[in-house]
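User: For documentation purposes, I need each entry recorded in a consistent format: the amino acid sequence on its own, followed directly by the corresponding C-alpha cells. There are two entries in this batch. Please keep commentary to a minimum and don't merge the entries.

Assistant: Recorded as requested. Entry 1:
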Amino acid sequence: MSETATHHHHHQEEHFEQTETVRDIVIGMADGLTVPFALAAGLSSAVSSNAIIITAGFAEIVAGSIAMGLGGYLAGKTEIEHYDSELAREYREIKTHYETERREVKEIFANYGLSPESQETIMNEMEKDPDKWVEFMMKFELGLEKPDIRRARQSARNIGLAYIVGGIVPLSAYFFTDTPHSGLLISAIITVVCLMFFGYFKSKATGQQPLKGALRTTMIGLLAAAAAYFFAKLLS
C-alpha cells in the first residue's frame, strides 16, 4: 500500500513538472517567434541592409530573453512568497482563531458528505499535528500547493532559452539572402510554418483544439508583423 502511494505521488509530481515546463516553453517560444519576426518585418520596409536587421534582431533577442526569463523568475518567486505568507497566517490562525479554524475544516468534510460524528473524530485526530492541520487548510481551504523552491530558476531558464530559439527562426532567413525584402519573404514562410507547427502542438499539449490553436497562433504572429511592417513603411 505504501509503495503504491509513493509511486502514485511520484507520478503526479512528474506530471506537474512536465506541465510547468511545457507552459514555460509555450510562453518563451510564442513571444520568441512573434516579436523578432515583427521587428525584422518592420525594419525590412525601412532599411536596405540585412546586416542592420540581423544586428537589431540579435539585440532584441538578447534583451527579450533576459526580460522574459526575469519575468518568469519573478513570477516563480512571487508564488513562493505568497505561499509562505499564507502558511504563516494559517499557523497564527489555528492559535488565535482556534474554533473558527476547526469549524472550517468540518465544513470541508461536510461538503464531502461526512457525518458530524466523523467530522469531529477526524478533526480531533488532525489537530494533534499542527503541521498536518495547516497543510490540510492550505490545500483544501486555499487551494495552494507547496511550490518547488527551484521552480523560479527553472522557469527563467526555460522561458529565456525558448525565446532565443524562437527568435533565431525568423532572423535566420536574413543570413542567406541579399536584400531585406527577399529576407522578409523567406522569413515569413519559415515563421508561418513554425507558428502553425508550434501552435498545433501547443494546443494539443494543453488540451485545446490543435487546428484552431495553430491558426490562432499564426494569425497573431502575422498581424504583429504586418502592423510593424506598414508602420515602419509609413514612417520611412
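Entry 2:
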Amino acid sequence: MLIQIFLTLILMLVYFTVFYNVGIPLSKLIGRRVCVTCYSVSLTWLTLLALQYSGIFAINKYLIAVLIAQSAVGISNLSEEFIVINQVRVSQTLLKFGTILYGTFAVLTYSFVLEVAGLVLVIPLMYLGILSMVPVNETSPITTRSKELLIKLKNCCG
C-alpha cells in the first residue's frame, strides 16, 4: 500500500509540474482556463484507474476513491463559475451542496457497491466541471462578475 501512496504522490507532483509549466498554452489550445490542481488530481486518479484496469499495477480502490472525492469537492467549488458562465438561475448553495451530495454518492457507489456504476456516475460530475471552466476567449461577453471570477481563478490556480 505504501508503494501505491508514493506512486500517487509522484503522479500528482509530475502532473502538477507539467500543468504549471504548460497551463497557459494549454488554456489557449482548449479555450478554457486550466486549474493546475484540478487537472493534476483528475489525471492522477484517471492514471491510477488505467493502471488498475489494464493490470499493470494493482491500485487500492479506496485510494482512487479519495482522489475522485477531491475532484468532486473541487467541482463543487466551481459552482459560482458555472452559474456565471452558463447564466443559469439556481442557488449557488443548492448547486454546491447538490454537487457534494452527488459526488459523495458516486464515490460511495464506486467504493462499496459496484466500481463500474460509480465510475459511470462520475461522468456527469466531470461534465459539470468542464462546463464550469472559465473561457479564455476575451471576445466573449464578459461581465464584471465573470472578470472577478477570472481573477479569483488566476490567484487560486496560477
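Summary note for entry 2:
The first helix runs from residue 2 to 30.
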